[in-house]
Amino acid sequence: MKDKMMVYLSLALSVISLGYAAWVRQHSEELAMRALHKREAELVQHWRPKFKELFEGMGQDASRQLKAPATLEELFEPLVTYLNRVGSPPDSATNGTADKKP
After folding, report:
1. φ, ψ dihedrals at 61, nearest 5°
2. pLDDT tens-digit profile of 42-72?
3. What DSSP state is assigned to residue 93?
4. 96 Rama sector, left if φ>0, alpha if ψ -120 to 50, beta otherwise
5. In the chain, N or C terminus with fewer CB closer than 10 Å?
6. What is the C-alpha to C-alpha distance for residues 25 and 46, in angstroms, rounded to an integer?
């Protein structure tokens, strides 16, 4: 009698754990995305003051540049834009070579 009870108990526990595993597999992407968005929000909140200091040090208007970014892409966008402007070659019309012929 005791052995039968253990067999049924282990069978029930196995069925419950298989059901839980199937449920987690169906909802794993949703759970992962929720955790990812939460972590991204934490990172943005942590790095926003440092980016504000960085922009103020570069002479940029930090309040205009960083209007409460929600994603890392929005946080880094002003920096990428600034670096693209700095690294771009000078315009040919402004350096006096527009009129010259080879």
Report:
1. -80, 100
2. 999 999 888 888 877 776 655 555 568 888 8
3. T
4. left
5. C
6. 32
Tokens describing residue 97 = 């070579």
Structure tokens at 53: 């200091």
Q: For residues 34 and 40, give the distance between their C-alpha atoms in angstroms, rounded to a whole number.
A: 10
Measure the CA–CA gap between 92 and 85, rounded to whole angstroms.
15
- What residue has token string 């922009």? 55
How many angstroms separate the CA atoms of 75 and 45, rounded?
10
pLDDT range class, residue 95, cuts 50, 70, 90: low
DSSP 89: P
Which residue matches tokens 């527009």? 98
Q: What percent of the chain has pLDDT over 90?
A: 31
